[in-house]
Each structure stands twice: as structure tokens, then as C-alpha cells.
């Protein structure tokens, strides 16, 4: 008899745990598609700061290439092997 009363006394407490677990699962199932879609949109789009960083990298790469070409031109001018397109007047000897 005590076991039955004890089980009846605990049943409301246990049912609350089951309801809470079911509710948590329902919330997770409902919010999962939203999270997946937002992650996909975030991966597919570029933010302004990412675009600025990419543009800055491209500009630095161009500047490095220009500097390398200027150094090569200056070296050719110093050695007397200038090409037709080289402007040796700007190179100090």
C-alpha cells in the first residue's frame, strides 16, 4: 500500500519532468530550420567589413607588384640594360 501511495505522490513530479523535456524538444525542433537557414545566408553573403578587408588585400597586392616592377626597372637602368618602356630619368644613379 505504501508503494502505491508513494508512486501516486511522485507521479505529478515526474510528469512535470516529462512535459519539460517534451517542450524543450519541441522548441529545438521548431528553431532548427531557422538556425540552418540563417547559417546558410550568412555563409552566402559578404558583410561590409569582409568586403573592405578583401579590397584592402587586393590593393596591398597591387602595391607590392608595382614596387617590385619599379625596383626591377631601377636595377635595369643602373646596369644600363633599360627597356624601351623604362623611364630611367626618375632613377637616381
Notes on the protein architecture:
The model has no long low-confidence stretch (mean pLDDT 78). The protein starts with a helix and ends in a 14-residue tail after the last helix. The protein has one domain (2-90). It is built from two helices and no strands. It is mainly α and 93 residues long. It has helices at 2-44, 48-79.
What's this entry about, in short?
This protein is 81% helix and 0% strand.
Q: Mind describing the biggest β-sheet?
A: none
Structural class: mainly alpha
Strand content: under 5%
Total count of domains: 1
Radius of gyration: 36 Å
Element pattern in H and E: HH
Calculate the mean pLDDT score and round it.
78
Helicity, in percent? over 70%
Count of helical stretches:
2
pLDDT under 50 segments (min length 5)?
A: none
Shape: rod-shaped
Number of strands: 0
Distance between the termini: 110 Å
Topology (elements, then pairings):
Blueprint: H1 2-44, H2 48-79
Primary descriptors:
single chain, mainly alpha
Amino acid at each position: 500500500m505504501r508503494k502505491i501511495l508513494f508512486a501516486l505522490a511522485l507521479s505529478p513530479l515526474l510528469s512535470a519532468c516529462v512535459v519539460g523535456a517534451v517542450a524543450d524538444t519541441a522548441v529545438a525542433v521548431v528553431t532548427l530550420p531557422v538556425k540552418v537557414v540563417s547559417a546558410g545566408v550568412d555563409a552566402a553573403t559578404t558583410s561590409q567589413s569582409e568586403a573592405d578587408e578583401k579590397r584592402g588585400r587586393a590593393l596591398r597586392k597591387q602595391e607590392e607588384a608595382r614596387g617590385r616592377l619599379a625596383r626591377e626597372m631601377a636595377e635595369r637602368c643602373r646596369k644600363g640594360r633599360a627597356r624601351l618602356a623604362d623611364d630611367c630619368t626618375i632613377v637616381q644613379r
